[in-house]
Amino acid sequence: MPGGVATQHIISIGDFNRNEIDQLLDHARQIDENQYDKFALQGKILAVLFFEPSTRTRMSFESAMARLGGASISVSNVEACSIAKGETLADTIRVVSGYADAIVIRHPKEGAARLAAEFAHVPVINAGDGAGQHPSQTLLDLYTIRQSMPIDGIDVALVGDLRYGRTAHSLASALSLYGVRLHTISPKGLELPASLVTHLSEKGMEIIEHEDINEIIGKVDVLYVTRIQRERFPDSTSYFNVASSYRITPELLIGARKHLIVLHPLPRVDEIDPRVDALSHARYFEQSGNGVPVRMAMLLRVMK
Amino acid sequence: MTKEENAGDAGDEDLLVRRIKNGTVIDHINGGEALNVVKILGITGSTTESLSIATNVVSGHMGKKDIVKLSNRELSKEEVNRIALISPRATINIIRNFKVYRKKGVEIPTLIEGSVRCPNPGCITNTNEPIKSRFTVLPNGLRCLYCDSVITKDLTSHII
Hints:
The complex is a heterodimer of chains A (304) and B (160). With 304 residues, chain A is α/β, with parallel strands linked by helices. Chain A has two domains: 13-133 and 290-303, 3-Layer(aba) Sandwich (Rossmann fold), CATH 3.40.50; 136-289, 3-Layer(aba) Sandwich (Rossmann fold). Helix content of chain A is 36%, strand content 14%. Chain A is built from eleven helices and nine strands. Chain A has a five-stranded parallel beta sheet. Chain A has a four-stranded parallel beta sheet with strand order 2-1-3-4, sandwiched between helices. In chain A, helix 5 packs across helix 6 (166-175) and helix 5 (135-148) crosses helix 11. With 160 residues, chain B is mainly beta. Chain B has two domains: 13-105, 2-Layer Sandwich (Alpha-Beta Plaits); 111-158, Aspartate carbamoyltransferase regulatory subunit, C-terminal domain (SH3 type barrels). Chain B has a five-stranded antiparallel beta sheet with strand order 2-3-1-4-5, covered by helices on one side. In chain B, strands 6-7-8-9 form a four-stranded antiparallel beta sheet, with no helix packed on it. The interface between A and B is medium-sized, with 21 and 18 residues.
């Protein structure tokens, strides 16, 4: 509430240092092992403000709140809400601050969550702003990697649309804290933004660009696949041509390290062959399920 | 602190730029940047200030420099900081009654607020929200505090 101790927000993974991330992931693991107070947020209300459609993120935040004994309120139809009537986000946030103990926001404009944090009297958690940040996804990505291996010094390949994919940007930034070597494979025009590459390289991260997944499949520990969106291409033929060359198949994974894990923020379309689901490498459904304990740890961090 | 002459008026420059009675003389602007300085100050053809500009004047230690003289207006700290972005060696001389009343260099600020537009059309600062744009100053450019977009070149085209 206003006054007193500074309100704690979670806006960007860049606001965390390595120690803070590790603490949050340790806490998520305790929760995952059922060591948590099921009434920790009893009597608390979370406002779920999603100005863009979402299934997983929204449901897992609501599930996380319910598991901690709290309640969620939300706008069911953004078209009908006051924003559609021309109200500024700043005003909406000031109003909603009076209804809830914390706000989770997803918004199409980049920087919207930071703006929300400036106007809110309660903690704000960013659940994705445009092509910008998506810290809860990054934390659960890190958590999923850590379930299989220590993150320090591993080789991670980012595959797919690395230009517009916000999950890839946030994850790359976070991995730079762990001395990870980053490999990127993306269609022409959808490469990791040059400004981000420069920024991460200056922080000492080694980033290697590849033309073909086959070049590196035997050398990486994590394959992080993102969706290549059809609307980025002039016609469906060029989309299918590009998409097929980035598809993860059991045949491709024959050359992979035994412990390699395949991650995907979901929803997937054609990027991963459904036959991969049955392989030991596939971790994307566990990754999605990890959203709940990680988001529980985030809610506790800002509300306790 | 007083000085008998307006800064930048030594020697032959008198032929180019007349002394002003009251106002601001911006000296040691990087050669060729004077018009951008004027743009940063928001001076357009429709403003009322009396303005003199000298470009590519021979300078002892800079090679070539530009000078801008602005009558009846003393620059604020915020305006001075904006100039530092494109001409970090500029000096600002406040003139009162033909004398240099105060002289100072410009400081590159750590944060730029409200004077640069974010180049990202998807940034929340390019909407009707009641906020000013804010950028942190990097060694090689500016980073938007809201969307993390970086401006590394052609900074003047982003000045509001």
